[in-house]
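Hi support team,

I submitted a single chain yesterday and got back a structure, but I'm not sure I'm reading the token output correctly. Could someone confirm the output below corresponds to the sequence I sent? I've pasted both exactly as they appear in my results page.

Thanks,
R.
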Amino acid sequence: MPYPIYREPTKDLFSQGDILNPKSLRLTLKGHQDYFVDRPYFRRYMVLTQTCDLDRTREMADFIFLAVVRKLSDVFGMRHVEDRRARNRTFNLLRDLYNHNYNKRGLFYLPENANCGIEEESVADLRVMFSLHKASYPDLLRARCGAITELYAAQLGHIAGHMFSRVATPGWNEVNPNVDLDDHAESVQKSIIDREQNMLSELKRAESGCFINNCKEPVSTYRWLPVKEENDEWLYEPHVLCEGHAKLYEEQRAGRTREIEA
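Hi R., thanks for writing in. Yes, this is the structure output for that exact sequence:
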């Protein structure tokens, strides 16, 4: 699918929107950003710091900010497709993503291009970011596997900095005249629905009822729940829930208050 977003990285010059391979940064991150080192769902990193602040010929920023890149299919789960209202929100979000419009989720769409390290449709998650000291500049350069054009880098920075308006990047229909946006968004949404329904069916076969003890309500969905703490980190597993306990968990999750208790 043609898409005028990518370009060759500029030799010896770091730029906003550059795409990095995490495997090349393992030693650099160890002891500084351990959380991000080996997470399999953080497929790539993307530079958020403005290009002018990365110029080593002038006063350079002390820290370089990076966002994680995740597969698009990893971003959406059961709660995004479990009822008509959720599906409508997901459909509209997909449309915004493909047009690089502002979205409250802070996601920046990256179309498939294996030559730039994006093996399948992905997003930069601008709400999950970290920083490295400018002393790591050479390591970051070596980790580059792709870059985006100045226009899309400007929109990336605009979304990251303001989250309210947008640069006038080309719309989907302008760059993909032979691919209907609604059809593409509907196809992606259907694949999410099919995957999540299969997961729910498997969990229903494996579990006798709602994960919450003594709950007799019929199960209707599932969530990835924090089930135990190990090495100061919660481990998450998928479990079926009734509608009421799923709603309770979402309320707790939104408030970042406490884990759901079985």
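A quick pointer for reading it: The chain has two domains: 6-79+95-176, 207-255. Let us know if anything else looks off.

Best,
Support desk
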